[in-house]
Design brief:
- By secondary structure, this protein is an alpha+beta fold.
- About 15% of the residues lie in helices and about 30% in strands.
- The protein has four domains: about 290 residues, Alpha-Beta Barrel (TIM Barrel); about 70 residues; about 130 residues, Jelly Rolls (Sandwich); about 110 residues, Rhamnose-binding lectin domain (RBL) (Jelly Rolls, Sandwich).
- A seven-stranded parallel β-sheet has the order 1-4-5-6-7-8-10.
- Keywords: Apoplast, Glycoprotein, Glycosidase, Hydrolase, Secreted, Signal.
- It catalyses: Hydrolysis of terminal non-reducing beta-D-galactose residues in beta-D-galactosides.
- GO terms for molecular function: beta-galactosidase activity; carbohydrate binding.
């Protein structure tokens, strides 16, 4: 239901084309059995893009990586005898060709390819195979060539691409994926320079702080790419959305796939990133004719300063002036004019004279978004029902082994959960004085909850960097028979890597040290196994199971109880703002609304470290560890619930909690823009991109201006900060400098109060007297929206 709005916001942001992966394991649920409904309705998605008047890039893969479960490849394929993924392997190639042909035929039937008059202009086969090809030896090169040739044989009439792939057949275009691709060159000089993935942020893993890429750096990378002859640039991702259900891979990838993208997870434009890139896109399109038809020249303007200049036969001239010094601002001379170039920035001159855009000068406002809580609104006390899982084997065991089995090969990813239970006897003279037994567990990953004699004694986890872990838990044993139940868990299957499908999970060793006779090794005990949970087996999350007799009504749900299912009737949050579910009061588990799987929740706290800083320096090459936020806080506290999943009334929320939490403190929150900020200096480009023409002169340039706008239906209700002079800081933490015009607040209030949007010029007559002659002035404003 979000698709039309998202595509419209991308178009409004200056996009010409929408790119999407095709998720094989979402579509081919069993060999030859296909699913193309609801969120997996690929034809409908393509139609939404077409109806918006945009092109489509179809990245079929069908291996896609994408931090998606198993890289998008169906788990069932791993269990077809003799299959090895992504190499010269007949079973894999046969199924890959079959699925690729299925998708191509669907698109042909709708006449979606450009060769049929449609809007699909590019198609992709495979994905970033160049990273791993060498690990597969001769089979890797043969497979890459086969994949490209198989794609070409589909006769789509549009070009095929392979990203991060250097061995490609003739007529297949190799493309670049990176934070920067300006220096990339395709295999052949006759091929276009295509950037399939510009990463405007980065993904999140449970237990880590959240990465952010500054808009100045994203814009810098794009401007450099087109200055250096780029043809196609795609943001991966412009909108990332949510890894609903168990689609998150990694392992340990969060349910949120926000990615710090220009459109956030909830479908709201992220300011200033979305707007800064919109201005960049307009500026590049002003250069379109010369970029397409002109000849390029590279001019040195200094040791780390240069100009890429394009001139065409009609007299058009375009220049990209770049300062790649990551520390120092520079003044450069180009065509007998001087230009200020901030460090790590590009200025775009569509006429080789006037600067219409500089990547480091963000003219757009910043929109501050908050999660505003509402009560869960369980309208009556008896609306709660619970079901408590049995600890260990429920019903009958699935099998018994005197060894540990691989978790993934056992569950075949039908569930996150696998029970292991065993028992052992302790001498009736136990405990002997001075004994302090320790339960030692080793695991390939990803997580475990340990129960001793029906009591939860501890939990342990790997992380996004290292799935495996070991843990030592002090325990109290009783004389006689003791029972251990270990619930092993996966948190998304591995998404990429050489031979990644063979990377297993699950327990590898269990022993008890500190016993009277040393260490008791339980690894070769008789272990009984049970796949999945009883609540999963009875599908208690489904609406048609609402009256299942296993649900027991409760006037007050139990708190901090492990292995508990909760069901509660909830009302629709008011308004039409996007909705998130605040799970901060819970431990770890799964959650559903009206049978729709919201996904894994886990408000796992990230470490406190020095990677989180109050502000981020955009200058210099970006890496995912450079600008992080949320250290010492839960990686993901809120979980997106699409508005379309709510009924007008009679909504049911189902939560499965593994460790124990307080379900009464779960709340819905509305994602609301509450304030706007802007920080614009006199030397920012002030040319109106909408009405720009090449006859404009900068002899009498327009004054820079601040533009503020609240979301539709809201007005600027108060001005929290205003300073014309040399203020500093970031939104919500601006500070006056040594230079400050005393009428700053009154000028801004006069222009902006009680209206939806306003413009304040830095040459406003209210700022008549220069507060600090000779200093470049800045106007900083923070305003509330309500």
């Amino acid at each position: 239901a979000m698709w039309p709005k998202l595509v419209a916001e991308a178009k409004d942001g200056g996009a010409d084309c929408i790119e999407t992966y095709v998720f094989w394991n979402g579509h081919e649920t069993a060999p030859g059995k296909y699913y193309f409904e609801d969120r997996f309705d690929l034809v409908q998605f393509a139609r939404v893009v077409k109806d918006a008047g945009l092109y489509l890039m179809l990245r079929i893969g069908p291996f896609v990586a994408a931090e998606w479960n198993f890289g998008g490849v169906p788990a069932w394929l791993h269990y077809i005898p003799g299959t090895v993924f992504r190499t010269n392997n007949e079973p894999f190639k046969s199924h890959m060709k079959s699925f690729t042909t299925k998708i191509v035929d669907m698109m042909k039937k709708e006449r979606f390819f450009a060769s049929q008059g449609g809007h699909i202009i590019l198609a992709q086969i495979e994905n970033e195979y160049g990273y791993y090809q060498q690990a597969y030896g001769a089979g890797g090169k043969a497979y890459a060539m086969w994949a490209g040739s198989m794609a070409l044989a589909q006769n789509t009439g549009v070009p095929w691409i392979m990203c991060q792939q250097y061995d490609v057949p003739d007529h297949v275009i190799n493309t670049c994926n990176s934070f920067y691709c300006d220096q990339f060159k395709p295999n052949l000089p006759t091929q276009p320079k295509i950037w399939t993935e510009n990463w405007p942020g980065w993904f999140q893993t449970f237990g880590e702080s959240n990465p952010h890429r500054p808009p100045e750096d994203v814009a810098f990378s794009v401007a450099r790419f087109f200055g250096k002859g780029g043809s196609v640039q795609n943001y991966y991702v412009y909108h990332g959305g949510t890894n609903f259900d168990r689609t998150a891979g990694g392992p340990f990838i969060t349910t949120s796939y926000d990615y710090d993208a220009p459109i956030d997870e909830y479908g709201l434009k992220r300011f200033p990133k979305w707007a800064h890139l919109k201005e960049l896109h307009k500026s590049i399109k002003l250069c379109e004719h010369s970029l397409l038809f002109g000849n390029s020249t590279l001019l040195s303007l200094g040791p780390q300063q240069e100009a890429d200049v394009y001139t065409d036969h009609s007299g058009g001239c375009v220049a990209f002036l770049a300062n790649i010094d990551s520390e120092k601002d520079k003044v450069v001379t180009f065509r007998n004019r001087q230009y200020d170039l901030p460090a790590w920035s590009v200025s775009i001159l569509p006429d080789c004279k006037n600067v219409v855009f500089n990547t480091a000068k963000v003219r757009s406002q910043t929109l501050m978004v908050d999660m505003v809580p509402e009560t869960l609104q369980a309208s009556k006390p008896d609306q709660w029902s619970i079901f408590t899982e049995r600890i260990g084997i429920w019903d009958k065991n699935d099998f018994v082994r005197n060894e540990f089995v691989d978790h993934i090969n056992t569950t075949k990813d039908s569930t996150d959960y696998l029970w292991h239970t065993t028992s052992f006897d302790v001498d009736r003279n136990y405990p002997a004085s001075g004994n302090h037994p320790i339960l030692n567990i080793g695991s390939k990953g990803h997580a475990v909850h340990a129960f001793l004699n029906n009591m939860l004694i501890g939990s342990a986890y790997g992380n996004g960097s290292e799935s495996s872990f070991s843990v030592q838990m002090p325990i109290n044993l009783k004389a006689g028979k003791n029972e251990i139940a270990l619930l092993s868990m996966t948190v998304g299957l591995k998404s990429a890597g050489p031979y990644y499908e063979w990377v297993g999970a699950g327990l590898t060793s269990v022993n008890i040290s500190g016993m009277q006779n040393g260490t008791m090794d339980l690894s070769s005990n008789n272990w009984a196994y049970k796949i999945g949970l009883e609540g999963e087996h009875y599908r208690l999350f489904k609406p048609d199971q609402g009256n299942n007799q296993r649900w027991r009504p409760q006037s007050e749900p139990p708190k901090h109880q492990p292995l508990t299912w909760y069901k509660v009737n909830v009302d629709v949050p008011q308004g039409d703002d996007p909705v998130g579910l605040d799970m901060q009061s819970m431990g770890k588990g799964l959650v559903w609304l009206n049978g729709n799987a919201i996904g894994r929740y886990w408000p796992r706290t990230s470490p406190t470290d020095d990677r989180c800083t109050p502000s981020c320096d955009y200058r210099g090459k970006f890496s995912p560890n450079k600008c992080r936020a949320g250290c010492g806080k839960p990686t993901q506290r809120w979980y997106h619930v699409p508005r379309s999943w709510f009924h007008p009334s009679g909504n049911t929320l189902v939560v499965f909690e593994e460790q124990g939490g307080d379900p009464t403190k779960i709340t819905f929150s509305r994602r609301v823009a509450t304030s706007v900020c802007s920080f614009v200096s006199e030397n920012y480009p002030s040319i109106d991109l909408e009405s720009w023409d090449k006859s404009i002169s900068d002899e009498n340039p327009l004054a820079a201006k601040v533009q503020l706008s609240c979301p539709k239906g809201k007005n600027i209700s108060s001005i929290k900060f205003a300073s014309f002079g040399d203020p500093s800081g970031t939104c919500r933490s601006y500070q006056q400098g040594s230079c400050h015009h005393p009428d700053s607040l009154s000028v801004v209030e006069k222009a902006c109060l009680n209206i939806n949007s306003c413009t304040v010029s830095l040459s406003d007559e209210g700022f008549g007297e220069d507060p600090c002659p000779g200093v470049t002035k800045t106007l900083a404003i923070e305003a509330d929206c309500s």
